[in-house]
Amino acid sequence: MSELSRLKGVGKARLEALQGAGIADAQALIRCLPREYVFFDEHRAFSAARVGEKALFRAKILKFSQIFARGLSIVRATLSQGEESLEAVWFNQPYIRAQLEQGAEWLFFGLLTISQGKRQLVSPARYPVSSEGVQPIYAPLKGIPSRTFGGLVQRALELAVFEETLPAELLRRYAFPAVGECYRAMHFPASRSELQGALARLAFEDLLFFQLAVLGEARAEDGAPLPVDEESLKPFLNLLGFELTRAQARVLGEILRDLGQKRPMARLVEGDVGSGKTALAFAALYGCAQCGRQGALMAPTEVLAGQHYERALEWLKPLGVEPVLLTGSLSAKEKKLARERLQSGAARVAIGTHALISEGVEYQNLALVITDEQHRFGVNQRVRLSQKGRAGEAGRSPHVLVMSATPIPRTMALALYGDLDISVLDELPPGRQRILTRLVPEGKREALYGFLQRNAEEGGQAYVICPLVEESSALDAANAVSTYERMKKALPGLKIELLHGRMSGQQKQEVLSRFAGGEVAILVSTTVVEVGVNVPNATIMVIEDAERFGLAQLHQLRGRVGRGVKQSWCFLMAEGGSTLQLLVDSGDGFEIAQKDLELRGPGEFMGQRQHGLIDRRLLALMGDGRLLERARAEAEALLMRRDEPEIRRILELARAAAGEPARN
Ligand code: ADP
Ligand code: MG
């Protein structure tokens, strides 16, 4: 019988839900930390909150209404704080309506966004105005609402016996709470400062364990040298049809030097959107194949993996290097075939999503692992891909190349990746012009449509990107659909198509290839096209409700255009005077990323809200920049004493943690 079923409130259904989420015992339950907290004494004025931020407001309900659109219930309420008002909206929660009452006052906690130019609070949770203290909020689990989950955790904490995971001397030196106390404070903090103390301990522990794994690994000189020189890359470079930029040639040299060593490569290539990272990845894959070994390229989305695969058919296959595509949306039969070709070695190059690291995928002799847009992956996913290589041939570590369009400050790179060497592609291929960027207020929408019409008549193409509505693909899709319909009405003569996350992998590919083939004038899309898509004839990028995006993400999106010779444009639907003005003034990805980091902090900056290990490491960096250096120094000191039993026990724990799949 599972230990969990001893908890009061856990019956058969809940036990199944917990186990389905990978929560096998009380310890695992306790390690599922709240995703956020509501501090009831921190409510504020509407005007004091920023778009894109979660906040708590005390407000009265002035009026409310409910409509049904496309089978979706939408409840809207006007909230008031004296003179000021704000609209709240609940999607697909029809029962909310019955709970609202005109004139009632509540505390509302939710995400402040902007939609069609108006601020709104999305699906806020409500609490009585008399609420006190702190409310933890957990990620939703099927059949177990957040509050119930908190209750289960409470009971698990009462029963749990904790094994201390840090050496006693470190607990003393840094005045960290002991492990049990730390988890209690993470779930039910008495105050912000208690929460911060617990968070600091967990973050330090993550950093320490990670540094132990990294430093332990760096010692190994167990890679397979891949002797590749410029000469043997000639056939590939000739096929490209362009000269490498000076920056590309320099970074390629650095990659080849690494590949030739017994010590496995661990290199991060940072380069602005369009700087030509893909060609370098394929050069390395080609070289690896020439040495008779396999390479893998992992991308964060199916769309991007698909594009890389197309590239592989164009750049590698004619030279006799067989690529194979492996993504989640392939049929079972296709997956089986792909796995066979990787295991037998018939395919030299694997391209795909994280399907590449799923259970049951084996490689004949994987020696090179490349991840594109790495910041979208957890560190553990990289570790797992490396482990696939080690499983293959006499436990040798593969070479690792990481590519990112997001410039990552040095300390952050250390925290995220450990000991990576960094190469910077600081030059764009010739002939790229500045993408002219404008803020377009709602009142100028007609004029913008006129511009799109004329552009299409001249054979040009455009993207229209819609932001996420909420953390729900159904609603993102609905938002994109309504934009799509509005555009079709406004521009009846044009071929307009739609792309969103609810479509199948195959449907997406079909739409994209029609767009790439020039059959489609305007592509209305959610952010699935964000990374890597390459259609040089598309010269206009329109971004709806642009304030919903971060600056760095907008810069990435904008990088989808400006890839051909024609002047390119980016139109941000936003009122004047916003921080988005920086995008109008600057085309420098590094400058924009720096500003974004300052404005939003590291967690948001790195992409979607991430939870689990990485996020905590980043939080720690924000709170105390020296924490990382300390963790590193302590890791080095512990490794020197690796023969002591207590230290050996900690090292075992660290090793187990590094191989764990990312939490949450
Ligand atoms: P990113 O660094 O954003 O991944 P890509 O690798 O997708 O950029 O390259 C963007 C475009 O530039 C692609 O069409 C690619 O073929 C092209 N490209 C890459 N390197 C060069 C070069 N040296 N000269 C001309 N075009 C290049
Ligand atoms: Mg790319």
Question: How does this model look, in words?
Answer:
The chain has 23 helices and 20 strands. The protein is α/β, with parallel strands linked by helices. Among the domains are: 42-127, Nucleic acid-binding proteins (OB fold (Dihydrolipoamide Acetyltransferase, E2P), Beta Barrel), CATH 2.40.50.140; 265-425, P-loop containing nucleotide triphosphate hydrolases (Rossmann fold), CATH 3.40.50; 436-586, Rossmann fold (3-Layer(aba) Sandwich). A hairpin with a 2-residue loop joins strand 2 and strand 3 (72-81). Helix content is 42%, strand content 19%. The protein is globular and about 75 Å long. The strands form 4 sheets. A 7-stranded parallel β-sheet has the order 10-11-9-12-13-8-14, sandwiched between helices. It has a 6-stranded parallel β-sheet with strand order 15-20-19-16-18-17, with helices on both faces. A 5-stranded mixed beta barrel has the order 2-3-4-6-5. The structure holds adenosine-5'-diphosphate (ADP) and magnesium ion.
